[in-house]
Amino acid sequence: MNIIRVKDQIEGGQVGAQVFQDALNNQAHVFGLATGSTPISIYDTIVKSDMDFSDKISINLDEYKGISGEHEQSYRYFMQKHLFDVKPFATSYVPNGLNPDGMSESGRYDKILEQYPRDLQILGLGQNGHIGFNEPGTSFQSTTHEVDLTESTIEANARFFSDKNDVPRQAYSMGIKSIMGAKQILMAAYGENKAAAVKAMIEGPVTEDVPASILQKHDNVIVILDAGSASQL
Ligand code: GLP
C-alpha cells in the first residue's frame, strides 16, 4: 500500500483529486465513487478544477434500501450535490434503493460492474473497518448484495438524519470481490475515530472480521491519512 500522510482533509482532497487527474491522463474511463464525509474534500477540489468527466462512466459503491434518489439522505442525492451537478458523467450508476427485490437489484448492478471495469475506485473506511456497506464478517468473495446495517453503522450515520429511527436499516452495496476488481483503489481516512480501523486495515491480519484488511492483497492502493487516523500505526 502506498501511504500518503497529509496535514488535514483539505490537503487530502488535493492529493486525492490529483489521483483522479493522473487517472484521466492515463485514459481512465470508469470511476468507482463513494459517499460519506471522507471523499467530500476530493469532490470539492475536482469541482473547482478543469477536469472533465462528461464522456466518462461513474459507478457508486452503495445506496440505502427503501429511499428514492430524490431523498436528501440518499447517496444518489449526495453525489448530485457534491459532484454530478457541476461535473456530470456521461452515465452515473447508483444502486436503485427503491427496488424491493434484493436479488434482481444485485444482479442488475453486477452486470453493470462486469460491463464497465473500474479504473479507479475511491473508498472511505467505517469505524468498524467496513468498506462500502460491507460489514465485518462479509465474505471476501461477495459481489453486490443486500445488507443489514449494523447498529454501529446506523449510529454513525444517524448524524445525517433528523431522527435515528429514520436511518434505513438496509442497503445495497458492491461486494468485497467487486471492490477488489478495480484496477486502482484510493482509500482515505481522517480523524482519531478511524485510527483503530486504519491500524487493523494496514497492519492487522487479512480477515473477514476487518473488511478493509483485504486491501493488503491489492497491488495498487493509495491510502491518504491524517495524523489522527495514522496515530496507531
Ligand atoms: C458509510 C458508507 C461508507 C463510508 C463510511 C464512512 O457507512 N457506506 O462507504 O466509507 O460510511 O463514512 P465517513 O466518510 O463519513 O466517515
UniProtKB/TrEMBL annotation:
Cellular component annotations (GO), alphabetically ordered: cytoplasm
Keywords associated with the record: Carbohydrate metabolism, Hydrolase
Pathway assigned to this chain's UniProt record: Amino-sugar metabolism; N-acetylneuraminate degradation; D-fructose 6-phosphate from N-acetylneuraminate: step 5/5
CDD domains, per the entry: GlcN6P_deaminase
GO terms for MF: glucosamine-6-phosphate deaminase activity; identical protein binding
Catalytic activity, as annotated: alpha-D-glucosamine 6-phosphate + H2O = beta-D-fructose 6-phosphate + NH4(+)
Coiled coil regions, renumbered to chain: none
Pfam families per UniProt: Glucosamine_iso
Gene Ontology terms: biological process: carbohydrate metabolic process; glucosamine catabolic process; N-acetylglucosamine catabolic process; N-acetylneuraminate catabolic process
EC number: 3.5.99.6
Superkingdom classification of source: Bacteria
Active site location: D62, N128, H130, E135
Glucosamine/galactosamine-6-phosphate isomerase domain span: 20-221
Membrane-spanning ranges: none
Free-text function comment from the UniProt entry: Catalyzes the reversible isomerization-deamination of glucosamine 6-phosphate (GlcN6P) to form fructose 6-phosphate (Fru6P) and ammonium ion.
Stated family: Belongs to the glucosamine/galactosamine-6-phosphate isomerase family. NagB subfamily.
HAMAP family: GlcN6P_deamin
Protein name stated in the entry: Glucosamine-6-phosphate deaminase
The organism of origin for this protein: Weissella coleopterorum
Name of the coding gene: nagB
